[in-house]
Amino acid sequence: LARLQARHDVTVANPRLPEQLPAFQAALATAEGLIGSSYKIDEALLAAAPRLKVISSVSVGVDNYALDALAARGIVLCHTPGVLTETTADTIFSLVMATSRRLVELAGLVREGRWTRNIGEELFGWDVHGKTLGILGFGRIGQAVARRAALGFGMPVLYHSRRPVDLARKAPELAGKALHTPLDELLRHADIVAAVLPLSNETRGLMGGREFGLMKPGAIFINGGRGATVQEAALLDALDHGTLRAAGLDVFATEPLPMDSPLRTHPKVTALPHIGSATVETRYAMAVLATTNLLQALAGERPTAVFEMTAG
Ligand code: 8YV
């Protein structure tokens, strides 16, 4: 905030709070830059912001933004790739561990004073090391998850992405350890499937009843990308009536997760409140990068991290 205020007039307003919405709307009328995250930027908002030149998102995902409308108006969109990769991969791997080893459930047993004897086999977990991990989406975060799995846990890794990644060049440590695999084949062979997909027309609802039905009996599903890439009713059906062992979810179709969502309290679900990047160090790095991006764009320079609209 201090860096921005040193060079610009800044209005701080949270449009999600009714009492701050008028100040936000008033500022939009003259704003040339906008910085923040998780707020829907649609045509109506852009119409109210005639002088807007740049949006700097404190996130890597850009699914909240009407990309076509931004491109049509020549508005530059910046985001924060890179700085959150390792932290988000840590979160996703935490869900792999938590679901497989039943960590939350068993920690609850201790906390509630129910650890009165050695636990019986009905509470045993499932090994993680050596299991086959399928990764849906193989960008920076997917590759960082693959490194943890392949190099740290001896897991064969299958990945699904639009195109095979040239691992020899981009991630030599994963060459021969992570195999590009068609979706159906990956679902049939992986013991644990981790989705790390951005939300786009191509990925919306990608995991549905057919896909969960292809998964191995006793497999685990993890989602650390975007909630709407999964059809939640189909996931619940697979947990209740199919053979899915467990699900670990950091993201949901609607966030915060509605109180009446069965995913909130499902015994087979470990649900987190979208904390993929939420560490002190990483959120600070994201804020710094987003601020730098905004200042650069407003100064007419090329920002460090522009989201290339045409690359999708
Ligand atoms: C943020 C994320 O928590 O970067 C992203 O795309 O999902 C998260 O790191 C989210 O955008 C809220 O700031």
From TrEMBL:
InterPro entries: D-isomer_2-hydroxyacid_DH, D-isomer_2_OHA_DH_cat_dom, D-isomer_DH_CS1, D-isomer_DH_NAD-bd, NAD(P)-bd_dom_sf
One MF annotation (Gene Ontology) recorded for this entry: hydroxypyruvate reductase [NAD(P)H] activity
Residue span, D-isomer specific 2-hydroxyacid dehydrogenase catalytic domain: 1-305
Record domain D-isomer specific 2-hydroxyacid dehydrogenase NAD-binding: where: 94-276
EC category name: oxidoreductase
EC number: 1.1.1.79, 1.1.1.81
Secretion signal, residue range per the UniProt entry: none
Ribonucleoprotein in keyword set: no
PROSITE patterns: D_2_HYDROXYACID_DH_1
Keyword Metal-binding: no
Swiss-Prot/TrEMBL catalytic activity: (R)-glycerate + NADP(+) = 3-hydroxypyruvate + NADPH + H(+); glycolate + NADP(+) = glyoxylate + NADPH + H(+); (R)-glycerate + NAD(+) = 3-hydroxypyruvate + NADH + H(+)
One Pfam family recorded for the sequence: 2-Hacid_dh_C
GO cellular component: cytosol
Keywords, in A-Z order: Oxidoreductase
Matching SUPFAM superfamilies: Formate/glycerate dehydrogenase catalytic domain-like, NAD(P)-binding Rossmann-fold domains
PANTHER family associated with the record: 2-HYDROXYACID DEHYDROGENASE-RELATED, GLYOXYLATE_HYDROXYPYRUVATE REDUCTASE B
Protein family: Belongs to the D-isomer specific 2-hydroxyacid dehydrogenase family. GhrB subfamily.
Record's protein name: Glyoxylate/hydroxypyruvate reductase B
